[in-house]
Amino acid sequence: MTLVINDCPAEKLFIEHNSWLRCWLLSRLECSYQAEDLVQDTFVRVIRRREQLRHAPLYEPKAYLVTIARGLLTDHWRRKELEQAWKETLAHLPEEAVPSPEIRLALFEVLTEIDEILDTLKPSVRRAFIWSQLEGYSCRRIAEELDVSLSTAERYVAKALRRCYDLRFCL
Fold it and tell me: pLDDT tens digit string along 29-50?
């Protein structure tokens, strides 16, 4: 069975746009393997969204693909920044405190998921959460720092915690 997106087989979409998308991504990345991975991820997302596309015509396939690829590229860069910060943190730990490679990987995956959760929050809510969890600020201090009422600061922290609990994460 061939997947059809608005009467255009996904295979045809891939054949017609794969090459230029790879070039577009390669111009933004330093590695052809990363570009190839993001091309593949872009078309995987297209296939996953096929139901949405059946209800709306795809007049500009290149623009559609670039929109998806840009989001993936942003995620890629964000993960690279987080990975660099994680490596720097590990480099500053005393030798005896450095976790095993398996634990480092598991911790990094959790950090990545927490980062994704925090990215869904408004900046003030994110800041309140980070201050409460990492800096140990009270809600009163958060309210002062953000120049909001105490109840607003409490609501911000609660909202972020709820989001973490909903996704089974909490610091």
Answer: 989 999 999 999 999 998 888 7
DSSP helix/strand/coil, 39: helix
The residue assigned the tokens 């109840």 is 151
pTM of the predicted structure, to 2 decimals: 0.70
Measured CA to CA, the distance from residue 13 to residue 101 in angstroms comes to 41
The predicted pLDDT at position 25 comes to: 96
User: For the packed helices 10-26 and 61-91, what is the interaxial angle rounded to 10 degrees?
Assistant: 50
Domains in the chain and their CATH numbers? 4-88 (1.10.1740), 99-166 (1.10.10.10)
Q: Which residue from 8, 31, 7, 32 is spatially nearest to 19, judged by alpha carbons?
A: 32
CA-to-CA distance for 72 and 76, rounded, in angstroms? 6
What pLDDT does residue 1 have?
Answer: 45
Q: Count of CB atoms within 10 A of residue 57's CB?
A: 11
Contact partners, residue 107, CB within 8 Å, separation at least 6: 86, 99
Q: Which residue has the tokens 């608005």?
A: 6
Q: Which residue has the tokens 């007049």?
A: 59
Regions in the chain scoring below 70 on pLDDT: 1-9, 52-57, 168-171
